[in-house]
Write a structure and sequence with these properties.
The complex is a heterodimer of chains A (67) and B (258).
Chain A lengths: L1 E5 L2 E5 L5 H7 L8 E4 L2 E2 L15 E9 L2
Parallel strand pairs in A: 1-5
Antiparallel strand pairs in A: 1-2, 3-4, 3-5
Chain B lengths: L5 E3 L2 E3 L3 E4 L6 H11 L3 E8 L10 H4 L6 E4 L7 H15 L3 E4 L12 H13 L3 E6 L3 H10 L3 E4 L13 H10 L5 E3 L5 H10 L3 E4 L1 H4 L4 H21 L20
Parallel strand pairs in B: 3-4, 3-10, 4-5, 6-7, 7-8, 9-10
Antiparallel strand pairs in B: 1-2
Classes of the chains: A mainly beta (67), B alpha/beta (258).
């Protein structure tokens, strides 16, 4: 198990969960989002490889209405 | 008439009206207003995905970024670090390189912090971004931004969301005169005639959000702005008549019935 934070929320994930798995879990795979892991942007082609570990902090962002 | 092309960096836009996508009742209204405004570029904000609500509708489902260019902004950023982080993420979402930089210095006035803005513009230009910069109406700052490689200068007409119209026409006209990159009025426009005035002064474009979104009928107001901008531009290109302190009769004074 890995206790991590996604967008400020505490979440517990199964062992060996990848960034791609997180996107699937929240039905965001294929959606236009960007991901930051512990302050570093993760490029799309690394989503599968990048596994999450305890205390990781993820930010998942998208475009919303704004001026 | 020779063609009148609106170009920011290498991007050609059909409309000189750029609209924001915030403050609308819902995404359906947002999409309708954009359509009736005729704008082909809209500003968008970068925010966290709501992970507790998987069914929350997405802006992209309503406003197709393949048809309408998204211009990611840094609204809500109060320093260079936040703004850079936001725009680097924006670029990652879909390769957006044209962005709107806006670094605020004060929560009450939302006035731009020009020291942070100038510093950040330099970094972004170096990283290959095409930066449209929200700024004060100070001609010196505007010139600095242009020298730094900004793709467009976006001075405020009045504070963001205030709807007060153009407050310092002299400064705006000085910026228009000196700038070789497009000058786009950003922030403070309250109603369609304000946009016409900006365009008649020679601005290259206007960016409107609140004045449309907060109108009683936003979709109709969007259309009003579309024509206001077209009208102001045509008027500017036509060259207005000279002002005089005395009357000049419109009908011939010859051959009057006596």
């Amino acid at each position: 198990m890995a206790k991590i934070q996604i967008n400020g929320k505490k979440v517990v994930l199964k062992q060996n969960f990848s960034v791609q798995d997180v996107l699937k879990k929240y039905k965001l795979n294929g959606k236009k989002v960007a991901i930051e892991l512990n302050g570093k942007i993760i490029p799309q082609n690394k989503y599968n490889k990048k596994k999450l570990k305890n205390n990781d902090k993820i930010e998942i962002v998208q475009f919303i209405g704004g001026g | 008439m020779k063609s009148d092309i609106f170009k920011i960096d290498k991007k050609i836009l059909k409309s000189r009206l750029i609209v924001g996508t915030g403050k609308y009742k819902n995404l359906v209204e947002t999409a309708k207003a954009i359509k009736s405004s005729g704008a082909d570029m809209v500003t968008v904000a970068v925010r966290r995905v709501n992970i507790s609500d998987k069914k929350k509708p997405l802006l992209m489902d309503y406003v197709n970024p393949k048809k309408i260019s998204y211009l990611p902004n840094t609204a809500g950023c109060f320093n260079s670090i936040e703004a850079l982080r936001t725009l680097r993420l924006a670029r990652e979402i879909g390769g957006w390189k044209m962005v709107k930089l806006e670094i605020l210095g004060d929560k009450k006035t939302l006035y731009p912090d020009m020291i942070e803005t100038i510093k950040t513009t330099k970094v972004l230009v170096k990283e290959g971004f095409k930066v449209l910069v929200y700024c004060t109406d100070d001609p010196l700052h505007a010139k600095k931004l242009e020298d730094m490689g900004a793709s467009a200068i976006m001075p405020l007409a009045a504070p963001i969301g205030s709807g007060l119209g153009i407050h310092n026409k002299l400064n705006i006209s000085l910026i228009i005169k000196q700038s070789k990159v497009p000058v786009i009025i950003d922030a403070g426009i309250g109603t369609a005639s304000d946009a016409t005035i900006a365009m008649e002064m020679g601005c290259d474009g206007v960016l409107i959000n609140s004045a449309i979104a907060l109108a009683k009928n936003p979709v109709q107001m969007a259309e009003a702005f579309k024509y206001a901008v077209i009208s102001g531009r045509k008027s500017f290109l036509s060259g207005r008549m000279k002002k005089s302190n005395f009357a000049s009769s419109s009908s011939p004074e010859k051959d009057l019935i006596s």
